[in-house]
Amino acid sequence: MDSMIDPAEQAADDLETERPEPTAELTAVLMGAVDAARSAIVEFEGGDAAEGLVGEYLGGALEDSNAATHRFLAAMPGYQGWQWAVVVAASPGADHATISEVVLVPGPTALLAPQWVPWQERIQPGDLSPGDLLATPADDPRLVPGYASSGDEELDELAAEVGFGRRQVLSQWGRIEAAERWNEGDYGPDSPMARATRKVCRDCAYYLPLTGSLGTLFGVCANEMSADGHVVASEYGCGAHSDTPQPATIGSPLFEPFDDGVIDLTQPVAEAEPVEG
Question: Which of 33, 63, 91, 219 could form a disulfide with 209 if both were Cys (CB 3.0 to 4.6 A apart)?
Answer without folding.
Answer: 219
